[in-house]
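INTERNAL AUDIT FORM
Audit reference: QA-55
Scope: verify that the stored structure record matches its stored sequence.
Auditor: D.O.
Record contents follow.
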Amino acid sequence: VKPMPNWSETLRVYLRKKLPMYMVPPHYISVSSFPLSSNGKIDRKALPEISLSVLQQADTYNAPNTELEKTIANIWQEILYTDRLIIQHADLESNKLSSIANETVSSMYYPSKNVSGIDKQTSFLISTTASFFSVGGNSLSLVKIYQQYQSKFNFETEALSIRQFFENSTIVEHAKLLETIIIDDIQLKQWHTLHINEGIASYAQERIFLDERVRFYNQSAIYNELLVQRVEKGFLSVNRLLKALRCILSKHKILRTCLVFNDDDSALKQSITDIHLTFTLATDQTFRNEEELHDIIRQMTVNPTLFDLSIGRVFYCQILRQQVTPDENHDKEIIKNSDILVIGFHHVAIDHLTFSIFFSDLWSTYNSHVTWLDDEESLQYIDYAVHERLIDMTMSHEFWRLQLEGCNLKRQLLLPIDQHCLSNDQRSGSASMVEITFDRRISSSFLNYASLHHLTLFQLGLATFYTFLFKLTYSQTDLCISCVNANRYRPELQTMIGMFVSTLPYCMQLDPCWSFHEVTKYVREKCFSIFEHSHYPLQHILRDFHLNQSTVSFLQTAFDFMTESSVSDRFTFDDVSLQPVSSKEFPDLAKFDFTLTFFYDPVSVDNVLSCSFICSRDLFEDTTVTIMIQRFQYIFEQLFSTSFNVNETALVVSPIAKLTLILPDEMNEIQRVPFYRQSNVTNEGELNSILISSFVTALASFAQARIWLDERIRFDPVKSQIAIYNMPFVYRLQSGHTLSIKQLHQALHLTVNKHPSLHT
């Protein structure tokens, strides 16, 4: 037998010609021989155990062979490992810029860093045949790599879509794809500034602007985004900070842009103001203790007058000073240790990938004493709003038509709500939030599963959520929810401050007979297909299907997966260190009726996952939300409770319909609930019958258990409310007819005695 170089890649290429993409194994392990059982078949149990670490050791390192492969490898290394290198070599860098935790767009945006000076011995080598997802990649990092490709090789999305890079996930495969671009010499048309001060609002601005006015009461703000930092070391100059902020507002015109609805043409218009020239910090406030500080932050978060879009006041800054003694006088020229710096934005002007861009500019401007950053030739957000409306969306229009055709977009999910509200009722934004943290073993199993199956964490989390919703809604198979996308689909948008996030329907038709493996493959393909068309505006989808934003059901349930680094939650001005005030002290706001959000910190020592349910108090009680997340945790444990092993067949074979939401303590209670009947009546379940004198005690029937449990799962028995399983039958005697009450009583007595279920 001759050894075959790159045998795993050769086998992978061969299988792709014979099998659908999702059936091609992501990894291969070489063994000297297959162990056989006594009957001559392969003894699966005797095969070596396969884990993520084993696969990583088995993957042979293949160095880049061509200049193109070397270029691609360098791009991968810069994107995938910049953050890890910064963490390991923080002592080599005096500039410790950090970014703020990401919102809803599934990952952190890390400002590019020059790591060329770092010791090469500590760099990470990436094999040209290693899968992108097996070396720590996720969907957002692949987007960054794709945009680096666009910038480096200058090609349009139409010429080479990002999905092709998802499906062909090695450096060798990426090189083959990019070779076609180089050969065809297809050029990317750059976007340039239009030198305008007035124009149409972007689709994202429209959505936020209208959503705030249509779906929510105006008594409380829903889109105030605050970054709250405590001075941990040193002090800041108020004067230098103010100059730096004015400089940032001058450079990023979206932070001084007003929005006004034009009644003449029913269009939302934006125009740039000169508010930066007179911008100043809000009047200082004082707090005596942490409780007072948290009260101030809570009031600020929901304050509807904090911003005024009509005059371009979409940015806010204030200093909160700690009052140690009643007669303490503060130096108004500095922000000292224990003081709080509050920086606020209206969501219509920023998304949370903006935060790191903002602080990067603020940090460099403050430290360098620069007083003006305005570049008249730089692309502004108002230019983007015009350019995006010139994009040919014919293909995306057709994609979404086919994607949603046949879906009942008005159908409500059968969630266990406590108070019924019409879908077009306005919401208060008040939320009930419950968070859980999975242990390291289950978290590791989840992460290994994603890596071994070439799934992004977002895709695996979404598949888990769909499986949970399928069970929670009593086997609803047509499930449609909202997910968000970063939507920075061009290289020019990577360093631009603004609101780009798109909210889109993710509709799935699940089969109860599918295993969880099959669900993940279906979700993966669905996500890949949507990704290419995520720039298609929600407004267009609603218009195409004659839907109203205030009534469409998929905007009531949302999913997100946030990857955020705890190492990047601090930043530095000269010798001043600031630390974020925990966001847990902020009031919980419900932008959707029901939201599941995963959180993962890839550089955390614990390396664990957590998740939260944020539910509207207009529909859900706190106890209901707590029970729901317990059920979700139990589903999660059923799927990932054992360290994942590719020899494991339970998830491959078992249908998702066999998963259960019944918690172990509830199951124990059900098994302890007897009913009594005459001994000559056969129990439906034939379970655990015990003769007691002339009666039999046995487990309740399946139907009884379902109804009994349903009342306790979906409805709180402690609270007084309308009963849902009372079944009255009301009859009126015809004129001239009579009944004997004595005979009726006797007949009812005989009937109840005859049918034991009526006295059980």
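Auditor finding: record pair retrieved intact. The longest strand covers residues 224-233.
Action required: none
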